[in-house]
Write a structure and sequence with these properties.
Arc Repressor Mutant, subunit A, Umud Fragment, subunit A, 2 domains, six-stranded antiparallel β-sheet, two-stranded antiparallel ribbon, elongated
Length: 187
């Protein structure tokens, strides 16, 4: 669901506030945090978000705003080898809230195929995680982004493609974030 800009800002503020503090913001917290003089507009937007099913509110309670997490049920395991009886019990819910501050980029090219990252895959990038040698990262190089493995090479950091057809990158780069997941769509 695509939210209009003011609602999106309020929704993101609620998510970040709750993630940072461990409890949801009050209406006054939202108004103050987003520079609103009055709480009336915030209340209207919160009502809309609740009606859209994006948040839940409990009238009469302070700090009773809940962001509706979305998730995908994990039904169990499936062998990639010998076939096995499929079970239809929900094993757990895969919650995307762990990635709430992350972003995704679509992979273009084949430089990471030996790491299992193919052209067209979506990489989930967390800009807050510290990258260390061995991690797969997104780096900014010459004003463009690239996904590579971070390594130490001759006492300096370098970017290693996971395809022998490509060379090691030793030029200066900035780390944008650590790749924390890969999503492949089959359509």
């Amino acid at each position: 669901m695509r939210l209009p800009n003011p609602k999106m800002k309020i929704f993101e503020f609620i998510q970040e506030f709750a993630a940072d503090r461990g409890y949801p913001p009050s209406i006054r917290d939202i108004a103050k945090g987003l520079g609103y003089q009055s709480t009336k507009a915030i209340k209207i937007h919160l009502d809309d978000l609740a009606r859209d099913g994006v948040i839940k509110r409990q009238p009469g309670r302070a700090r009773a705003i809940q962001v509706e997490p979305w998730g995908i049920p994990i039904l169990g395991r499936v062998p990639a080898g010998t076939p096995n009886l499929a079970v239809q019990d929900v094993e757990e819910i895969f919650s995307a809230t762990r990635w709430r501050r992350s972003f995704m980029l679509r992979v273009k090219g084949d430089s990471m195929i030996n790491a299992g990252i193919m052209e067209g895959d979506l990489v989930v990038v967390d800009p807050r995680q510290q990258a260390k040698p061995g991690d797969i990262i997104v780096a900014r190089l010459y004003d463009e982004a690239t996904v590579k493995r971070l390594i130490m090479h001759e006492d300096a950091y370098a970017l290693k493609p996971e395809n022998p057809a490509y060379e090691l990158i030793k030029d200066h780069f900035d780390v944008v974030g650590k790749v924390v997941g890969v999503i492949r769509e089959y359509v």
